[in-house]
Write a structure and sequence with these properties.
The structure is a single chain. The protein has about 375 residues and is α/β, with parallel strands linked by helices. It has two domains: about 80 residues, Elongation Factor Tu (Ef-tu), domain 3, CATH 2.40.30; about 210 residues, Alpha/Beta hydrolase fold, catalytic domain (Rossmann fold, 3-Layer(aba) Sandwich). Helices cover about 25% and strands about 25% of the residues. It has an eight-stranded mixed β-sheet, sandwiched between helices. Strands 1-7-4-5-6-3-2 form a seven-stranded antiparallel β-sheet, with no helix packed on it. Strand 10, helix 2 and strand 11 form a beta-alpha-beta unit. The longest helix has 14 residues.
Amino acid sequence: MIVYLKVLIAGLRLMKMTGPIKAELKVLAVERLDDEINIHVPGRLESQSLGAQSLFWDSRKGHAEVQVNSATSTEGKIVLRVTRVFTGQLPAAGDHVSLSGWLGEHPQHFGFADEFQEIVMPNKTRAWFFRSKGSKWVIHVHGRRAGMGETLRNVSQFRDLGFNQLTISMESDPRPYGRGTKRSKLGSTEWREVESAVFYAKSQGATEVLMFGWSQGSLMIGQFIRNSRNTDVIKGVIFDSPLLDYRSTMRFHAARQGIDTALGDRVIDTIDKDPMVKLFGYSNVDVDQLSLANNALEASVPVLVLYSRKDGHVEIMDVFDFGRINQNVTLVEIVGAKHCRLYNHDRAKYQDSISDWLQEHQI
């Protein structure tokens, strides 16, 4: 019974889009030297991102930009130099923090204060629109329990390439950007929200649309490509650190925790068939049918997949399965990068890979 309850809770958590966001690193010390602030956390230097990162604390209420100080970091202790504070008072020793790749939360943090509009979409969610000349668009879709801010760090590249851009929120996102519905159906219905964004782009004159997904956002886009009859304007797809299969990802996380990977299978089977899921206000979902590692897109649209074998969050072998079962897939590894921190780790290779792929496919 105890194991069953743990499995059920894990399944519900996968579909839950609200609640505290876990921070896994304990602050060892905060060092203030003249105008420099360094935050010490446990970790190995060789496994750290090379570029700037976001430091979050207090369930993402606090947010700063940091850079690993390689010169003063030691074995087992990473020194993070604070380069910018976005929100909140800096954490103290004993607090818990997490690292991610956002580099900001709002367009203003990236210098776009006068270059965007916040718009209300037909489904009453909000989106940020970056206008450019022409009829080419990029639609950015963020990952699980992230937010539109996750997608902003590479907006400048597409602006320079002349794309209009739309970064969307999902209905399960907290208000005011989402609708606060709180529960996910793991892409089985959310693909219609992606489709709605494409309809909007077409209504504004888009004739060529590039879809850009981050982590779970990639799976949402994949479901749109597989299920929609309105993909005529889609000219290409880019995935960053894609989540392509829930079952393999849950098995991956079970293995990381040192427990039987079969428990990952039980979580997915619970979501699929257990009637208790409905009693808690969720829906049963045929999770395996959503897999992009085992079910082809059945479309010839070119796909660029940016990934890292050191991802640490999703089962990376799914990337190779996706490439094997689909046509016209380009795989580019950003060696040594963490999940959704590919841009941060090697910006030059990241952006060059996108530019080269766009040119190759004349997008």
